[in-house]
Amino acid sequence: MASFGALGRALSHRDARLFFSASLTAWTGLWVHRIAVSWLAWEMTGSAFWVGMVAFCDLAPAVVFSPIAGAVADRMDRVKLTMFSQAAIAAQAAMVAALLAAGQLSIGILLALEVLSGIAASFSQPARQSLMPGLVPRADLPAAVACNSLCFNVARFIGPAIAGPLIAVGGVVPAIMLNALAYLIATFTMPLLRVEAAQRRGHAPEASVWAEAIAGFRYAGRHPGIGPLLGFAAIAAVLMRGVQEILPPFVERIFLRGPDGLAMLTACIGIGALFSGLWVANRGRVEGTTRLAIGAVGVQAIATIGFVATGWFPFALLCAAVMGGAGSVHGISTQTLVQNAADPAMRGRVLSLWGLITRACPALGALALGALGEVFGLRLPTILAMLLALLVLGWGLYRLPGMRQVLEDRRDPPPSAR
To answer: Which portions of this protein are annotated as coiled-coil regions (predicted)?
Structure first.
């Protein structure tokens, strides 16, 4: 493993290998599921709005539940919380598949079940990510955070590669059942982790869950580095991530393709994310990460403009790979900085805010883009959103020096941020 640099050092630890193997399994199932339900919604309705609603119902529960989940992850056993939430995701997938096989699944029921899955995922995300400092030494944490994102993006490549042929041959039901199986496997590996008690649980309860959730918002908002960085990431996610959440309408309306085209585009996003993730993981250092987190948004915005402006599918695949690569650099860099700068007692709550951003903001963007796409077409709203993202990039570059000093040097924030 040592020959693979920082990434190899992170994976040289037994618990890290077990954790990331389970993550890769679960997230592969997740991407198969996402492709399957988005295509199912498109087949059921033929509407970009309803495809956006499916993504919205899966991701939007994070708005309400992520802050609560972060507080819960800071006060209970994070391994057990991860197990319970992953088992709930497996049960939801099995229910969708069973109802669809029985011919009893309507778009309304699908939306309701996706909400349940979104609630469970809101609890799983901060619990799992808060365990990472207990899996590797602190010096290997940046590489471990990068490896976590890398697993997600490898799954984003593998999942669509499985989903496309599986849906074409067997339909949507086997694809969704595969997700249920994947999350069951991930659930049963959690007790095998040997995590120190101090890392399994943040602190003894000090107040109500609501009070601790509010304290997490207050801490992040007052932190001179975490607050601006998460605000920047949230606005960028609303403007840019909606495209990736409602790909089926783009595939059929702009490129005149079916499930194979959807799988190819999603796989290209995953390939770009994979290679950029490998690069970030092997950097193995925090220095320069803030600039990466900010600059990647500009690259992603320009690539997205190229994606929607062309009608030539091979060029769209190239743009999709760049979109995936830039998004991966931004996500890994932001999460690394947050993990590096956050107080350990606040880690679960701060990471839950990152989870809120990565789930709720794309959901909002997908809903808005789907609705506008029904009226104005897909190209114009997307290009306008990317131009706004470039304006946000300018604000991020202006704030870059101050954020970099606090986030990368890990100096204690002023008392107002505590």
So the answer is: none
Residue 138, domain member (yes or no):
yes
Q: How many domains, the chain? A: 1
Place of tokens 């040592």: 2
Full domain range(s) for residue 351: 2-198+213-409
Burial 374-402 (b: 16+ CB within 10 A, else e): eeeebbebbeebbebbeebbeebeebbee
Q: What is the CATH number of the domain that holds 261?
A: 1.20.1250.20
Tell me the two tokens of residue 136. 């590797």
Mean pLDDT by 10 residues, the chain (418 residues): 64 89 94 90 86 83 82 85 95 96 93 93 86 82 78 76 84 94 95 80 70 89 95 95 86 85 84 84 83 97 95 93 93 88 83 82 86 90 96 96 86 43
Residue 247 lies in a domain: yes
Q: Is residue 416 part of a domain?
A: no
Residue 414 falls within a domain, yes or no? no
What 3-state class would DSSP assign to 138?
Answer: helix
| Dihedral of alpha carbons 86, 66, 343, 148, sign | positive
